[in-house]
Amino acid sequence: MRTTLLGLALAFGLASAASADPLLGSWRTAADDNGHSGLIEVTVCGRSLCGELVGAFDQNGNPMPSPNIGRLIIWDTNPTQGGDYVGRVYSPDRDEEYDSRLVLTGDSLWVSGCRRVFGVRGCREGGVWTREN
Question: Could you tell me the end-to-end alpha-carbon distance of the chain, in angstroms, rounded to an integer?
């Protein structure tokens, strides 16, 4: 009984902590290689955070269609310390996945990612996303 109660308390604590995470909400991405940006909705996905592309915008900020609407752009994302997060990120303009590092400062989110190609580690800055809500 004691183990069950401890497990329930721990599970509730984890769910409460994730639901209050400051990364939750809507984020406008920096412009990609094509000048396009996206609107990412960050939510809780199991024990991690994830972000789905819910809107796409052209170089002028006008809504545009995208085959990536509904796709997870960030996933398996977890806080490490002091506004830093690690996880995975997808870059639609390059159709590539990266190990990600996110740094949250107020309403700004600095996004970067690294991956290995033929044993060589290459990194890319995804720019600064801004909070929309």
Answer: 43
Residue ranges per structural domain of the chain: 2-131
Report whether pLDDT(106) > 50: yes
- pLDDT, residue 13, reads 43
Banded pLDDT at 17 (limits 50, 70, 90) = very low
Place of tokens 């990536």: 68
CATH 2.40.128.520 fits 2-131, yes or no: yes
- Among residues 78, 81, 57, 77, which one has the least CA distance to residue 68? 57
Pairing of strands 120-131, 37-45: unpaired
Residue 73's Cβ-count burial label (10 Å; 0-12, 13-18, 19+) is buried
Q: How far apart are CA 108 and CA 91, in angstroms?
A: 19
The answer for residues whose C-beta is within 8 angstroms of residue 12's C-beta and 6 or more apart is none
C-alpha–C-alpha distance, residues 85 and 49, integer Å = 10
How confident is residue 116, by pLDDT bands cut at 50, 70 and 90?
Answer: confident
